[in-house]
């Protein structure tokens, strides 16, 4: 009984929303009633309908609220003490590997209660991948699953499905990134989930959207290749290259997070959830938008900001690889700095921004370029970029990358040092802002993770360690789902939350 009571307590989302609706209705009713005394007696529902039809009350609301919507009065709580942005949102996190976990970790950072479902005895495959500490959860896992709770459920066990369906009823968002069809095979089709909980937002990452490849499994680099990134990365005379930034996985996770919060926002109005789908190919292409821009520009002549133009090399049919060219309207290149012979990261990215051209000329000892017609204007410089950057490099090679940065910043010349991961890990300013965070883990000890890169000033982020496999199973069964102790004991013998007798196939790479 006690546990059931607790379970009821832990359903704030639905209650809050209903309460919020009531406030909205009441506010609208008040305004409407002020104009039309006859309506005063009407039920708040009717008043809202009337407000929608008649322009006068709408105007009144707009006057009061700026854009015509009724909102709660601004909180008087001090900044950061009015609750987290996504407090009250509960997520059924059926994600694994990288793309899905990136999304749900971010939502958990924003305050959502993220319940990660893992296979008993196995868990997310990344727990054991690329292990650095024997027998402990890997950094691959721990850095993508902070701020979450873990429950083990065998989704192929009858009782397991029953527990999952109970979770569906109490969550706001289901996030998954299984291979196409896997969730359907568990019986958790969108239709079934929507039937159980019409408010559920059902969010998926897949490799490809509907089309010829929709059934394919996809990993990071496949998405980079299929989304246009690889063909436009690297040097012209070399093969396509994948990038270190995980734009296929983490990039798509970010897109999905935006889709989810947008769907939550729409649900406030419609009362119903919806499907949200992010295909990794689409996510990568979205990040490569400027390269599709260049593809279309090719029809109208050479891409003059690409160094291949200055080198007199003709363009082909497709956007070429641009090496370290800027990709924007301000020519730029990567230049060696002092120590480059031994330090692989002794480089600086140097942008010859037009408004500071005169300062650049003075700095590198070429004041005559300020007035020389071959160098004085951006179009004149385009065919000579190679020579210009070689000359600037003669100057940067006399200083280390931080000296170049300091000197150039004084003149507002945009430059950026190549920072190694070692330098980033040790960078104090990133620690100070919570972008790099050290957390303590009971198994592996202290480790660094990337905190919330999005800073919300009224929803500060506290980064917590990742959960151990099944660490919160009992807590979730009793406190969230309301199972009694006797029922939990029964669940324990059903095989729904414990590994099957025959160990699952070892999947770690
Ligand atoms: N209990 C029981 N079974 C479970 C379970 C649980 N709690 N959780 C997962 N499973 C099962 C699934 O039901 C599925 O079984 P069936 O195929 O028999 O139905 C199985 O585990 C494996 O799912 P999967 O096919 O998704 O996993 P995989 O390792 O073979 O493939 C990946 C991995 C990433 C290629 C695939 O999931 C995928 O393409 N996902 C979509 C794209 C994506 O997110 N890619 C990014 C990955 S990060 O680089």
Question: What is the CA-atom radius of gyration, in angstroms?
Answer: 28 Å
| Helix fraction bin | 25-40%
What's the count of strands? 11
Strand content: 5-15%
Give a list of the ligands: oxidized coenzyme A
- Mean pLDDT, to the nearest integer, reads 88
**How is the largest sheet built, in terms of strand order?**
3-2-1-4-5-6
Molecular shape: elongated
Number of helices: 22
Which class best fits the helix and strand makeup? alpha/beta
Low-confidence stretches: 1-63
Task: Show the helix and strand layout.
Elements: H1 2-9, H2 12-35, H3 44-53, H4 55-65, E1 90-94, H5 99-109, E2 113-118, H6 139-142, E3 148-152, H7 158-170, E4 173-176, H8 182-185, H9 190-196, E5 201-206, H10 220-226, H11 250-270, E6 275-279, H12 280-287, H13 289-297, H14 307-310, E7 332-336, E8 347-351, H15 357-363, H16 378-381, H17 385-396, H18 401-410, E9 415-417, H19 421-426, H20 428-432, E10 436-441, E11 445-450, H21 473-480, H22 485-494
Parallel strand pairs: 1-2, 1-4, 2-3, 4-5, 5-6
Antiparallel strand pairs: 7-8, 8-9, 10-11
Helix pairs in contact: 2-3, 2-4, 5-11, 10-12
The chain binds oxidized coenzyme A.
Describe this structure in words.
By secondary structure, this protein is of the alpha/beta class. It has helices at 2-9, 12-35, 44-53, 55-65, 99-109, 139-142, 158-170, 182-185, 190-196, 220-226, 250-270, 280-287, 289-297, 307-310, 357-363, 378-381, 385-396, 401-410, 421-426, 428-432, 473-480, 485-494, and strands at 90-94, 113-118, 148-152, 173-176, 201-206, 275-279, 332-336, 347-351, 415-417, 436-441, 445-450. The longest helix is centred in the N-terminal third of the chain and has 24 residues, at 12-35. It is elongated. The chain starts with a helix and ends in a 15-residue tail after the last helix. Residues 1-63 have low confidence and may be disordered. The chain binds oxidized coenzyme A. Oxidized coenzyme A (CAO) binds next to helix 5, strand 2, helix 8 and strand 5.
